[in-house]
Amino acid sequence: MEVVTGVIGSLLSKLGDLLKEEYNLQNSVRGEIMFLKAEFERMQAALLMVSEAPMDQQPSILVKLWARDVRELSYDIEDRVDIFMVRIDRAPKDLHGLRGFIDRSLDLLTKAKIRHKLGTQIKDLRSSIKEVSERRDRYMVTQFAKPADVPVQNLRLSAMYKKVDELIGTEEKSDELIGRLIEEGDEPSKKQLKTVSIVGFGGLGKTTLAKVAYDKLKEQFDCAAFICVSLNPNIERIFVKMLRQLMKDDKYEATCDTAQLINDVRAFLQNKRYFIVIDDIWKASVWKTIQYALTENECGSIIISTTRNLDVAKKIGGVYHLQPLSLADSRKLFNLRIFGTEDKCLSNELAEVSTEILRKCGGLPLAIITIASTLANKKGMENIYQYWSKVCKTLGSGLEDSPDVEDMRRILSISYYDLPLHLKNCMLYLGSYSEDYEISTKELIWKWMGEGFILKEQGRSFYEVGKDYIDELINRSMIQPSRTHPDSKKAVECRVHDMVLDLITRLANEDGFLATIHDHQPRCQQERIHRLSLQTSNEEDVKQLSAANLCHVRSLIADLCPKAFDFLPPLSTFPVLRVLCLCGCKQVDNRCFKEICSLIHLRYLGLRYTGIAEIPKEIQKLQLLQMLDISFTGIHELPSTFVLLQKLVRLCADTLYRVPVGFGNLKSLQLLDVPCICVESPSMLNYITGLTELRRVTFMFDEWDESYVKPFLQCLSSLVSLEYLEITGYEICYEVCDSLIMPGPQQLQEIYMGDITVNTVPEWMSALSALTILRIPLLNLGEEGLHVLGSIPSLSHLDIYLDRGEELVISNAYPFLSLRMFEIRFITRVVFAQGAMPKLQTLRLGFRIKKAMDRLADIAVGFENLPSLVDVDVWTYLRCPEPEAMPEELEAAKATIQNAIDKNKNKPSLRIWP
């Protein structure tokens, strides 16, 4: 149901846009659109009512059939609205004179016909909409099927009452958890209320761990309770259960008034040392209500909570990240479930396949037990190795149905059903990736944008909102970060656990959201395909798509298996594509690119590592294109028509040697992900002027003279949204570079000055309040330069390359309030005064030893004054323009540096080269 309501939400937004005056529709057509909008608003409300029903009340077949009809009708109408919008909004020809007058007149007539055709189509759809609406009433499709045999809440009981011999790896973790709760301290700290919140992925064993700790400690307290909250809790019932356990009175009857129940719990706990476990909390608001009853009475009480949501855990406090089982413990649990013993000796073949199975289970006890249970039922069969291999291959993409597997899916699905509507669509889209795929979060967000999954927020770009979506899915334990940015610690790549991939692939296929073609599902079962992911190179599997209905496909993902492109039907059979990813498909050439340019609905086009050699002029047809990736294709020039892509937000390309006249007219362009733009003449800078939304750019100058200065300063002053600036070039002299940048882009966060050298730090840099990273080669640093750099409030990473070398004395007169990493090369001496660089964690120093010989004893002074220092790297340059240092001089310098580091109380690590 959620998929359908997501589709309707997108359609309602576009119908609202159609009613705006700019589209100049006739009153009769506007009336029809208002009718459509009203009907779909009511359909959406009905579907939301169904989707919000308890998980154990599944929609009936009639409801699912009606939802399918609504979904397909929504897709059809949205496609027609898109076609209208792209044709009515196409860029006008910029012609003058008689030819211009004729073309503009013809354009007006064409648009009038387009508006008339839309009105006719909407009137034709009215009967279809009425039929779908009447069908709902005719068959009473709001009825539900009977509840499931085993309620979801009851599935949790197995985690609470596991056999002792099945608690593999839990004993050590429970001891660690208890150690945090009853750690040594003074008497006042022992009396304080202690809270620990166990957070982790569904099925990781949070409830089991909490229960083990509870059983070990509960006898040491005056009273104890273990309460399960679950997804949609009844607060009054929770408090009643809590009171019954605390009072040890199962027959206790209480009022159903929440405020009174809270008062009763508080009164009972007033002077008691209590131990309460709050299991499976999903919402911070629920915890806030429960917290009212848990009085802090300075009796040394303990609260343990479990949750899948990191944000909730942080609000509760005392976050304990539960880690997956190690491979050794995973194998013990696996063997115990199948063979009844932890140390079963397997044949080489079975040992090898079992290792791969355990790797795919990712240390998740629920997955290990589920798969092991499936295998245990077949342990007496012939060809056991073949069966284990089959199960291994289908993990994450095609698990065979069994009661154990279904129970696991139901437990994992709770996390999915708790997601907001917009995140459900984003999560299902992850089914387009194969097992163990390292997903670029940046590329994923752009694909979400192309599909229209990201909601508009005032004052923020869609990409910024998309980054929040990634963070929320990680915090909810739905996806796992696999690589993070070294500075921001944000996820750069993520992956989906194989068991979650199995769940979302299943849901996406059932709801008609996504079709995947792979070895375990070679044929598409959907009548109408809306998104298609090719994960097979089998020729016959791909060729069978020629008989499928592809005219509704919105996303085509072929980069997971580039060879599949050879056997695909012509791209013209995908007329409403929004997202097309053909990265790595070498067969895609210039002819294919011209065919792609007829796909006027494209928002995302990925052509990295293809055989394309040039961009055709027909690129101007892609008026809705937001993201274009042509990197690693060898394309270094853009056609003149490229400047007509008014919706383009991001361009990924190889080094650009030329940009067309009017490039600055791309007013939506924010990201130029290219190694650099080679500025071959001052006039090229004029072409770029006007990109007011541009966030990042790299300029490379092959030559430089006075004629470049004014155009460059004008260009930079117009780039008012610039956050990242890199300047490089071999022929730029430092005398000119002092005026190279002016304080135009006040949003600058990173500045990299590569092969150029500036005389000294420009004073205007102190005004860049957002600047966090600066790399700058200098002739001289000096006291004035330190004052400028130290006054930049957000500066966290500073990299200086000194051309001539000098002594560096840093006092507390230079605040450096945010500096965490400092690197400086070619100094002769360094001194840190008390209070200098208070947050510095990483220090990288490059010494000119020969120049420092006259003061070698105090070459490094004051390291004890850096209270946050963690890592130190030192380069000792043996050879410089000066004479070579002797080995004994080098060793003496190293000893001095080591002694200085040893005075720091943090005992930071030290690495010295050579």
UniProtKB/TrEMBL annotation:
Gene Ontology biological process terms, A to Z: defense response to bacterium; innate immune response-activating signaling pathway; plant-type hypersensitive response
Pfam families: LRR_14, NB-ARC, Rx_N, WHD_DRP
Family: Belongs to the disease resistance NB-LRR family.
Keyword Coiled coil assigned: yes
Single annotated GO MF: ADP binding
Listed name of the protein: Uncharacterized protein
Top-level taxon of origin: Eukaryota
Keywords: Coiled coil, Leucine-rich repeat, Nucleotide-binding, Plant defense, Repeat
Coiled-coil zones: none
Keyword Nucleotide-binding: yes
Domain Disease resistance N-terminal residue range list: 7-92
Domain Disease resistance R13L4/SHOC-2-like LRR: 552-910
Gene3D superfamilies the UniProt entry points to: 1.20.5.4130, Helical domain of apoptotic protease-activating factors, P-loop containing nucleotide triphosphate hydrolases, Ribonuclease Inhibitor, Winged helix-like DNA-binding domain superfamily/Winged helix DNA-binding domain
Domain NB-ARC span(s) in chain numbering: 172-338
Residue ranges occupied by any Disease resistance protein winged helix domain in the UniProt entry: 433-504
Organism from which the protein derives: Panicum miliaceum (Proso millet)
SUPFAM superfamilies: L domain-like, P-loop containing nucleoside triphosphate hydrolases
Annotated InterPro entries: Apaf_helical, Disease_R_plants, LRR_dom_sf, LRR_R13L4/SHOC2-like, NB-ARC, P-loop_NTPase, RX-like_CC, Rx_N
